[in-house]
Amino acid sequence: MKEKKQNILIIGAGLCGSLLALRLGQRGFNVTVYEKRPDLRKVNINAGRSINLAFSNRGIKAMKLVGLENKVKQLCIPMNGRMIHDEKGNTFLSPYSGRDYEYINSISRGDLNALLLTEAEKHENVTIHFNKKCESVDFEKTTALFKDYQTNTQFIEDADAIIGTDGAGSALRKSYYLGKKFLFSFSQDYLTHGYKELIILPEGKNNFKIFKNALHIWPRGNFMLIALPNLDGSFTVTLFLSYNEGEFNFSNLNTDEKVLEFFKKEFPDALAHMPNLLEDFNNNPTSPLGTVKCSPWFYKGNTLLMGDAAHAIVPFYGQGMNASFEDVVEFDKVLDENLENWEATFKAYESSRKKNTDAIADLAIDNFYEMRDHVANPIFQEKRKLEMDLEKAFPNEYASKYSLVTFNEDLGYHDAMLKGRAQDKAILNMLAEGKINSKDDLKSILKIITKETQEILEEDKVAKLK
Amino acid sequence: MKEKKQNILIIGAGLCGSLLALRLGQRGFNVTVYEKRPDLRKVNINAGRSINLAFSNRGIKAMKLVGLENKVKQLCIPMNGRMIHDEKGNTFLSPYSGRDYEYINSISRGDLNALLLTEAEKHENVTIHFNKKCESVDFEKTTALFKDYQTNTQFIEDADAIIGTDGAGSALRKSYYLGKKFLFSFSQDYLTHGYKELIILPEGKNNFKIFKNALHIWPRGNFMLIALPNLDGSFTVTLFLSYNEGEFNFSNLNTDEKVLEFFKKEFPDALAHMPNLLEDFNNNPTSPLGTVKCSPWFYKGNTLLMGDAAHAIVPFYGQGMNASFEDVVEFDKVLDENLENWEATFKAYESSRKKNTDAIADLAIDNFYEMRDHVANPIFQEKRKLEMDLEKAFPNEYASKYSLVTFNEDLGYHDAMLKGRAQDKAILNMLAEGKINSKDDLKSILKIITKETQEILEEDKVAKLK
């Protein structure tokens, strides 16, 4: 720790790994990164991965840390709200915040990853190797076994510490689980729904066929379609649908006729922009939606899990990448504390961080139901309308759950969840009981919501005898 | 299904497996059971397993189903409440219910298992093999691979359906997980605490050194000791303690002096009855406390998980065995529906059952904190006292969470949890705010609790937009 010239081995050069390599490089560590895929700056390897992502304050905070805020801004398309498409093709925009300066961004995963790799490699103490897959980690010896895809040979690397940023299918996490050397709590939870990526191509060159600055949603109760804009004028469209349940599902959408019937019935306005639907539907994989939690993230001072490897979440809060980037910010903060060794550092990092990544995992599941279903519910819509009014009228006093999670990067996810859930409960119940009416004076509404939220939090505490 | 002469292979002849074998035998199926341990009626194999268990209404309901209620009763020692031992050696009894006829029982795991095995084997269509360990299950072919510990050879068995009742470390569940043939949600969660079994020997022959008809607890905030009576006058004592945290923990209790110092300071009255403490402490293993959840429990109509194999829980609600026995009762109910095939049967069983086993898993974690910590909290004690008064005064109208879970065997765990938690929250908050006072008229207290509980349930529903 005192000794900056320590050798750090990072497994995985995805978004989290490449940012971590950059930051540790900036801090003066000797960093070696091994990535199983080819260098995405040289080969197109997008197939099967979501090609754009929602990027917001927590991610931007990380970019500020490494001095890349301006470069990243050029890759971003602001999305000011959800554009809701109903069954009849009507649309309305539901803003993400009542404050104009709060919005999320659509960004290309590949472009962002490429930028981070290039910036990391500018440091002579950072080396990145591609086409080298981690097979397993000997966490007692602090060594990792790799397979070189180019030479088809295996080799072992050691380091002072190994950090696994190797994603939801992490080899390091698998070694923890299979090693049975310590009590390893672990969960993988799949939704009954999967997803498939489709595309709305640009109108001519760089012209957006639907409104550019929104995250489009076609909520249909038990399934939904969403679309995020890309810089080239296209939209990446994602269908979230049950594998086996309901009238339409991935199992029974097994002919072109059925796929067309489904889109004609449920998403006619989207279908009008997707002449390429059948080709995409047949060629693109159907992928599962899973949440991974585990603990401990570290083994002694030898190894540590970060990013999706430690906490993979479903995409419905648009926080997957943001949470992983925030990991690096939080880890960096712990490094500033200059603890006595890696074990103390890893322990301090997990103990402050885990409650927050657990919270965003749960919030992301909540939002699955919210986006799919609740956004079409009148009382939910009334709540959102009221919250927008409150955010506009009291920009410094009121923040919705969505704002707390998305735009309040200095508040941890856990606290954002507790306060946001209590606030939602207060508003929904008071609306349902007629205790507040959106026509009432906003100042008095704010007061009563604040009071009721506080009471809910207090009652929950008493119930847990805390 | 129509065809009763189907061959059912059961993996594991523990409590759940032997009860299931008995019930399926009674229903006319051809049942073959393979158990990895020796026959416990012939060999003493208690070491390392908890040797007595809490047995209550849900378990008794299962015994009624198979006609063993009376035989089992002879193995039971009623425990009417928790006998709380404070630091100074003072004791007070906190009854489990305000209704005299509601109590739990201490029962020997071995005696109960032996009875079930013997009863199952009375059916000529039931065969039980011992010393045969399941290594893996090919759930696509409906075959299981066994190792015979006596001949040290392997063999494969097939069946029309295979049911894994092979406990928390289930080989069938492991095959689901490692097979990666379908999306398998799975979690294993360990508490930071482990446990160690100790013993209070009888005073002379069959004389109980401490009060016989109670579950004794020495709650100490971050750790606790409990003791359950055995028919021979002894008590099985269990220490629940953190592995690594706190002043005293399993890692630092590494000399006889430290163990004695710990018991002298924290459990002097128990220590007085345990001259054999050091020997037991050194000889007996320290075991982890884990919760396992998973889904799906079945693969097509081929295989099914039941009991701890599907849902291992921590022991703090005394419901582990009761929940596994209730599995058999619920499975039996689904068999009565005569669905078209095993797949439909397994599916119907899991879809009605899983929410309840998830609930008891969560309730058992709640009770860890309650037993260890809250039972010594004044407001919690006031609640318990009030609830006992309500149960006495209104035996048909009021039931505490504990009663709902333990004594209301016709109410599912899930509903018991929702109602019980809301009720606890209502009472604790009203006591904290002085809205009810245990000196008030009981009838009016009941009314206000009922109303507040209903409101909490309603508000939770609205918050979830249900």
Automatic annotation (TrEMBL), chains A, B:
Molecular function per GO: FAD binding; kynurenine 3-monooxygenase activity
Catalytic activity, reaction form: L-kynurenine + NADPH + O2 + H(+) = 3-hydroxy-L-kynurenine + NADP(+) + H2O
Entry EC number(s): 1.14.13.9
GO biological-process terms attached to the record: anthranilate metabolic process; kynurenine metabolic process; L-tryptophan catabolic process; NAD+ biosynthetic process; quinolinate biosynthetic process
InterPro entries attached to this UniProt entry: FAD-bd, FAD/NAD-bd_sf, Kynurenine_monooxygenase
Keyword Iron-sulfur listed: no
A Pfam family assignment: FAD_binding_3
Domain FAD-binding: start-end pairs: 7-175, 298-362
Cofactor(s) this protein requires: FAD
Pathway assigned to this chain's UniProt record: Cofactor biosynthesis; NAD(+) biosynthesis; quinolinate from L-kynurenine: step 1/3
This protein's record includes keyword NADP: yes
Family in the record: Belongs to the aromatic-ring hydroxylase family. KMO subfamily.
Ranges that cross the membrane: none
Its job: Catalyzes the hydroxylation of L-kynurenine (L-Kyn) to form 3-hydroxy-L-kynurenine (L-3OHKyn). Required for synthesis of quinolinic acid.
Source organism per UniProt: Seonamhaeicola sediminis
Key words, A-Z: FAD, Flavoprotein, Monooxygenase, NADP, Oxidoreductase, Pyridine nucleotide biosynthesis
Gene3D superfamilies: FAD/NAD(P)-binding domain (3.50.50.60)
The protein's name: Kynurenine 3-monooxygenase
